[in-house]
Amino acid sequence: MQNTVAPHVLAALARLGAATIYEAQGARGALDSGIKPIASTMRIAGPAFTVDTRPADNLMLHYAMLKARPGDVLVVDAKGYTEAGPWGDVFTEQALKMGLAGLVINGAVRDAASITETGFPVFSRGLSIKGTGKNQPGQVNVPITIGDVRIHPGDIIVGDQDGLVVVSRDEVETVLRQSLEREEKESEYRARIRNGATTVELLGLADQLRRFNLA
């Protein structure tokens, strides 16, 4: 999938972070909290190159590495299976050479320490030292579903220590604007709190508290 989103837009989304983007786009697109970066400092932003693969088999990952383009985020649905690690340090070396933006896998990886040293962003459901086969067919660049989130090729994936969010490729500019507006609003909230305001005042929660006799 050709990356058609400008690099400065991707950089802005990465800086804003997954939580801000999720809230700004109407509390949509968050992958479940079980998928996390293997190192807390890892951040990711880029268009999804999707891979639908069988559990405990990485043949389609080898194929995907022939088709993905620089800047892509490999988004792999390994069906949530965490008792095998289809991705490790050798794949990571190839991904760095290719200029990929990162990996998101609904499954496990291995060689976490080596991967972390390279700085290549990897988000996974777990870690497993167990190996995989190379026998099962699958598909690349097709819509996949992880949890209750549908991911289409080219959708923008943003991730950080908090988690991952998917932005529809057709809504990127709108979501960026909404996220910047939300960031500005929260910055104002923090400034007002430093000057003595409370969250109850800022969010207009006094009446709600009174309903429960909490005033």
Structural overview:
The protein is an alpha/beta fold and 215 residues long. It folds into 2 domains: 7-170, Ribonuclease E inhibitor RraA/RraA-like (Glucose Oxidase, domain 1, 3-Layer(bba) Sandwich), CATH 3.50.30.40; 177-211, no CATH class. It has 8 helices and 10 strands. It has helices spanning 7-16, 18-24, 59-67, 89-98, 112-118, 172-194, 199-203, 206-211, and strands spanning 36-37, 44-52, 73-81, 102-109, 122-127, 139-140, 144-146, 149-151, 156-160, 163-167. The strands form 2 sheets. Strands 1, 2, 3, 4, 5, 6, 9 and 10 form an 8-stranded mixed beta sheet that branches. Helix 1 runs parallel beside helix 6 (172-194) and helix 2 (18-24) crosses helix 6 (172-194). The longest helix has 23 residues, at 172-194. The radius of gyration is 19 Å and the shape is elongated. Substrate binds at residue 110. InterPro entries: RraA/RraA-like (IPR005493), RraA/RraA-like_sf (IPR036704). Keywords: Magnesium, Metal-binding.
Q: What's the structural blueprint in terms of helices and strands?
A:
Elements: H1 7-16, H2 18-24, E1 36-37, E2 44-52, H3 59-67, E3 73-81, H4 89-98, E4 102-109, H5 112-118, E5 122-127, E6 139-140, E7 144-146, E8 149-151, E9 156-160, E10 163-167, H6 172-194, H7 199-203, H8 206-211
Parallel strand pairs: 2-3, 3-4, 4-5
Antiparallel strand pairs: 1-5, 2-6, 2-9, 7-8, 9-10
Keywords: Magnesium, Metal-binding
Binding site for substrate: 110
Binding site for Mg(2+): 111
